[in-house]
Backbone:
């Protein structure tokens, strides 16, 4: 069979091997996370959340002159909000060193989805500035994204910031409305927010 000896066939086989290797690597990471965090598994009791939390956080940092931003995405509006908030927390410190020792609950209302995201992030910033609380894991229990009655209920698991154990990164003053974006594009929710630092 001449096709099996061709360069195109070798390329296809190499590509498949890389794809299979990456899938196996992700599976091994997931299994290791399962073994290391059985407590988290029992606590969330939700396989889709567990897989997302350990493999799917989707955000990027935007470097804007004088400020900084986060662009995030999620399969649902809830996950996009969570990814945005986790991206913000990652600007403050290295989340690998945060423990889930305390829970806080937040409920927010707004007349727009963009306003809801800004108000939510500013509430998280308020809890950090006032009480030193920083989140490790965020669960959005309820999100109504339809204006004019947008609302959100959330539980954040984390601890008080400890300067001896936690790295200081940026001091975030507030989430702003500058270039704020919350929209569904091709079946995926996308957010973009700029922070005052």
Residues:
């Amino acid at each position: 069979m001449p096709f099996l000896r061709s360069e195109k066939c070798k390329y296809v086989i190499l590509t498949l091997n890389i794809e299979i290797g990456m899938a196996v690597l992700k599976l091994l990471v997931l299994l290791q996370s399962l073994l290391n965090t059985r407590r988290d598994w029992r606590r969330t009791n939700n396989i889709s959340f567990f897989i997302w939390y350990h493999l799917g956080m989707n955000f990027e940092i935007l470097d804007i002159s004088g400020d900084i931003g986060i662009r995030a995405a999620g399969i649902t509006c809830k996950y996009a909000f969570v990814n945005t908030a986790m991206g913000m927390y990652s600007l403050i410190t290295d989340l690998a060193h945060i423990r889930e020792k305390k829970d806080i609950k937040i409920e927010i209302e707004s007349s727009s989805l963009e306003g809801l995201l800004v108000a939510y992030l500013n509430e998280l910033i308020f809890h950090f500035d006032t009480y030193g609380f920083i989140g490790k894991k965020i669960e959005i229990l309820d999100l109504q994204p339809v204006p004019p009655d947008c609302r959100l209920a959330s539980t954040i698991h984390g601890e008080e910031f400890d300067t001896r154990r936690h790295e200081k990164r940026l001091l975030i003053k507030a989430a702003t409305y500058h270039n704020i974006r919350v929209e569904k594009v091709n079946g995926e929710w996308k957010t973009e927010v700029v922070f005052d630092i």
Residues 22 and 28 are 10 Å apart (CA to CA). The chain has a mean pLDDT of 81.
